[in-house]
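Structure representation:
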Amino acid sequence: MSGHSKWANIKRTKAVVDAKKAVVYAKMSREIIVAAKLGGGDPSANFRLRQAIDRAKAGGVPNDNIQRAIEKGTGAGNLDNFEELVYEGYGPGGVAVMVKCTTDNRNRTAGDVRSYFSKFGGNLGESGCVNWMFKERGEVVVNRKKNFDEDAFLLEALDAGADDVDTSEEELLVICQTDKLEDVQNKLSRLGYAVSSAQANLIPLSTVEITSKDTAKLLLKLLDNLENHDDVQNVFANFEMDQDWMSEYLN
């Protein structure tokens, strides 16, 4: 698992990511709005919307907020003109960083993202400057069953269409092609497994080792500030570092 994936897991475990509920609600509502705008407001016929709703519920977003977001996306409410943007650049230590945003003001978002890169020792680059260092893959996260049988689960996951399963963490990570994401999730759910999330993520093809604690701290500040910006939905980076440095930063 890449350093950035471990960083995300540590933040989630410590429950410090997006500590303010208002930030969580805003981010997840935007995700629902865009999903409904692109694919319609029926979750049963819109996989992306269904996933956005599941993540929102897991994040504690009230049902009323979810419904209002769907209505905005389908034009039934006051529709904000949200668009999806991706920014690319290099962080401290030459780490490649991809920033996925949903915004109603691209000038504001671009200015804020650029300022974070500059403030924390990085450089915002042109479109395409680092995306070739990543590949997209589907990831289904499954909670472990009691008396979990790894071998049996691996066979069932592969039969469902998965390419691989990572059992090294507390939660099981099922890896698949993005076009098989919905099928894999549905089949595992039907088999009785507790799927906590299913989404497409960007995975680095190679990683940069951070060997300086000062550089590590600066990089984590950059990622932390980006991730906590209202307009930023996801941040991906290709680094490895001492896990203790990540934990120390958050304490």
Notes: Residues 21-39 form the longest helix (19 residues).
